[in-house]
Amino acid sequence: MEAGDGPEETPLPLELTRFQLSEEYGFLLPHPLMELPAPYGPWMEIAHDLPQLISSHQLRSQVHQMPQLSTRHLRGREELHLAHLVLSFITMGYVWQEGEEGTIKVLPQNLAVPFWEVSQALGLPPILSHADFVLANWRRKDPNGNLDTIISLPGGESLRGFILVTLLVEKAAVPGIKAIAQAIHAVLQLDEETLHKALQELAEAIGDMSKALKRMHDYVDPTVFYAVIRIFLSGWKDNPAMPEGLIYEGVSDEPMAFSGGSAAQSTVLHAFDELLGIRHGQESTAFLHRMRDYMPLPHRAFVEELHRAPSLKEHVLSSGDPHLREAFNRCVSALADFRSYHITIVTKYITIAAAKAKARRAELGGGDGLSVGKPPTALEAKGTGGSHIFNFLKSVRDSTREGMIRA
Questions:
Q1: Which of 155, 179, 278, 398 pairs as cysteine with 273 (C-beta 3.0–4.6 A)?
Q2: What is the tens place of the pLDDT at every residue in 119-148?
Q3: What burial letters (b/e) apply to 346-373, b meaning 16+ CB within 10 Å?
Q4: What pairing do the DSSP bridges indicate for beta strands 106-107 and 139-140?
Q5: SS3 314
């Protein structure tokens, strides 16, 4: 129930709208814009043609001809998010146009300066993040509710599938996000019945997220993901292909290093961890906390607010109620299952795909005859965010399981 539905209702202490969270869309941007104001036509023109410009190796020359545009005509959150989405996609294409062996050291001023300014306005880093790639990159294609992306990169239908399946996982989480607010309110009010119901809804939402994630197999080809898409999600921190980082011309003379896109930048799982009191190992926690810098500021504030809230786990323990304990454990178990399934996906799309790409390279004597692209090797054992992917995912899954309340 929304605060203000009835005169007798006291507002929830964790009102979602305070954190730019939507009752219908959760962390997704509710109504993303598809076009920027007219002065930004040169950006939109390049952005809409990115796959073709990158595959024909013409993007860098197009960017060099792009006028230096001021960001002062951008108004409001939606325009800023679309500008960030457009500039981040152009930046990834510019950096990785020639693959990991043809990287550049400097992002030109006409791209770097506006990207930096828009990033500062949103509190986001100047690189493609989950907030751009998924949360702000969707539109309704037709009245039937079919979805499409706004901006694309090489990868065709597999890229579209990867973005939209991830979006469906975020959408499936929405009842769970609402359940978080209800659970904290119930703890404060000592309302065990409402708390039990909220925990049931949370467990169900996490289960629905796992179901949504399974659709990845239907829409994303592992070879295309590994050989074509993945490099454009890679950053310039902890990446051997760009050990020094990137100079943002006109912003800083020193190179800067930012992590690439990562599922760890999704606020959803951070929020669930905080509510359920899940504690990860030191290294995993350090990486996850760094990933919070890649979230929109209000979403980060939501996670911090949850961290300060009364401990749900302590409340369940002290209640001695076996039904509450069982409902709590169902949430933890569903979260561990979701993380296990994420490991299954990563195994298929990275480990097995990497092994196949390696075998193909050996077969072709080091050359690569793939028409889809040359698979990157710098991040074979790492995620695009720069973490040692399997150590990290397994550690996080195992520490989630340890969050169960033992009888």
A1: 278
A2: 999 999 999 999 999 999 999 988 888 999
A3: bebbbbebbeebeebbeeeeeeeebebb
A4: unpaired
A5: helix
- Residue 73's alpha-carbon distances to 70, 184, 347, in angstroms, are 7, 41, 45
For residue 254, CA distances in Å to 134, 244, 251 come to: 30, 10, 9
CA dist 20 → 17, 254, 256 (Å) = 5, 34, 29
Residue 248 structure tokens: 């943002």
* Tokens found for residue 183: 């659970």
Give the per-residue pLDDT at 163. Answer: 98
pTM of the entire predicted model: 0.91
Reported as a single tens digit per residue, the pLDDT across 319-378 is 999 999 999 999 999 999 999 999 999 999 998 988 888 888 777 765 443 334 555 555
DSSP E strand boundaries for 136-268: 139-140, 147-148, 247-248
31 annotated to bind ligand: no
Q: Which of 260, 258, 289 is CA-nearest to residue 273?
A: 289
Closest listed residue to residue 160, CA positions, set 173, 174, 150, 145: 150
**How far, in Å, CA of 108 to CA of 268, rounded?**
34
| CB 313, CB 199: distance < 8 Å | no
Taking alpha carbons only, the member of 27, 8, 330, 319 closest to residue 186 is 319
> pLDDT at residue 98 above 60?
yes
DSSP line for 93-128: HHHHTT-GGG--SEE-HHHHHHHHHHHHHHT--SS-
Of 328, 264, 330, residue with least CA distance to 291: 264
Instruction: Give the separation between CA 134 and CA 138, rounded to whole angstroms.
Output: 7
> Could you give the CA distance from residue 398 to residue 199 in angstroms, rounded to a whole number?
21
The two structure tokens encoding residue 295: 């979230």
Residues contacting residue 209 through CB under 8 Å, at least 6 positions apart: 169, 172, 173, 176, 268, 338
Predicted confidence (pLDDT) at residue 10 exceeds the cutoff of 80: no
CA 163 to centroid of chain Cα atoms:
10
pLDDT for 192 beyond 70: yes
* Predicted local confidence at residue 367, as pLDDT: 47
CATH number attached to the domain at 17-67+74-361+376-403? 1.20.58.480
